[in-house]
Amino acid sequence: MHGVIPLILLSTLLASHSVRAESQEKLRDTGLVCAVDMGSNTFKFIIAEINKGEYLQYVDERKTAGVGDDLKATESKTGRKQISDGKVQEIRALLAGFQDQCEQKTHSRKIQGIATAAFREAENGAAISDQLRQQGIEVQILTGEGESAYAYEAATLGKSGFAVADLGSRTTEFVTKTGENYQWAEIHTGYKVAWDDFYEKAGTFGQASSQHLVKLKQMIGEKENQILRNRIELVMIEFGETASYVLGIPQDQIEGKIITRTQVQGKLKDLHAMDAKAFADLKKNFKDAIKVLPRVVLADLILEQTGYDQLRGSNRELNVAIVYQISRGVTH
Questions:
Q1: Comparing C-alpha atoms, which of 54, 39, 248, 285 is closest to residue 139?
Q2: Which of 86, 125, 220, 240 is most open to solvent, judged by the fewest CB atoms within 10 Å of its CB?
Q3: Is 4 exposed, middle or buried (0-12, 13-18, 19+ CB in 10 A)?
Q4: Within a 10 A sphere around the Cβ of 223, how many other Cβ atoms?
């Protein structure tokens, strides 16, 4: 899917910790806001605020939810693309835990949320949103266009002319902005999809990555790559674990760090050198292998096909946009 969409009213997203919002229109104080990004694999929860022009974040918690896996399993079992009743109850319980934290900090159980690919694909996504609303959680299911725009703003702090890739669990978005328009493409594969299809049962990394690359090259063509080519800089969002792996530094230190293609290829060389036992041990003992291995392969392909010799990594998530929208009077 490709398209050009008008500039939506999203505020600049900043990294976690305290950052001065100097490039923004005047932002009003929000008070504490509880916000959740309900991804297809992981739910990300923050408590944050805008105070005197500064973004301040106090809680950042991430929990595996496995909604995409459940959607796939339910479709296989019933033929219906739905999130199962059991998973809905798990979602509600997980979010209730976030609400407990919210209540401790804000004396309210109200959470603002966004949901991405698995929820927009599910036939019962809207019904689940209604249930969550009754629980005190206002959830907006983002379209592919909306998710692309959120990703762009998170990665670039609102500046035009950059190339952004959002490497999610179920979908990948390529997006750029020229003037007041976004040009975007949604690619229907992500790290969890690739892990299930190629890496989980593969004997070696070389076997898995070669099959993964064949699929990626079928899905990512000239139209997709043209979105990213010849921009100011290439930025990859939701790239924290992968950047940490490539650079060898903690994930909370990678925001904005430059990663060269030489560094990416160095890690790929090490992975290709593993025999079957070493690869099996890596998959068993490296907790972020599911997120990192497919993303390293995809990142190198993007660099190769778009002509960049480096990228800038970002650990930001989309939920920060909710706080900024509230600060600018946008009804979520």
A1: 39
A2: 86
A3: exposed
A4: 10
Q: Where are the beta strands (DSSP E) in 124-256?
A: 137-141, 163-167, 172-178, 181-187, 234-237
What pLDDT is stored for residue 67 in this prediction?
A: 95
Q: Are 111 and 99 in contact (CB under 8 A)?
A: yes
Rounded to two decimals, the pTM is 0.80
Q: Taking a C-beta distance cutoff of 8 angstroms, is the pair 64, 38 a contact?
A: no
194-198: average pLDDT: 97
| Arithmetic mean of pLDDT, 27-32 | 88
Q: How far apart are CA 208 and CA 1, in angstroms?
A: 26
The predicted-structure confidence for 218-260, as pLDDT tens digits, reads as follows: 999 999 999 999 999 999 988 999 999 999 999 989 988 999 9
> Hey, what are 289's tokens?
């292998």
CA 299, CA 185: separation in Å to the nearest integer?
16
Rounded CA Rg of the chain: 19
SS3 154: helix
Asked if 38 and 114 count as a contact pair (C-beta separation under 8 A), the reply is yes
Cα within 13 Å of Cα(281), Cβ side: 6
> Exposed, middle or buried: residue 298 (CB in 10 Å: 0-12, 13-18, 19+)?
buried
CA distance 77 to 21: 49
Report CA-CA distances (Å) from 157 to 78, 314, 324: 43, 11, 12
Query: Mean pLDDT across the chain, nearest whole number?
Result: 89
In DSSP terms, 181 is beta-bridged to 6, 178
- What order do you get walking across the sheet with 258-260 strand by strand? 2-6, 181-187, 172-178, 163-167, 234-237, 310-313, 258-260
Q: What pLDDT, on a 0 to 100 scale, did the predictor assign at position 56?
A: 83
**Crossing angle between the packed helical segments 261-272 and 205-219, to the nearest 10 degrees:** 130
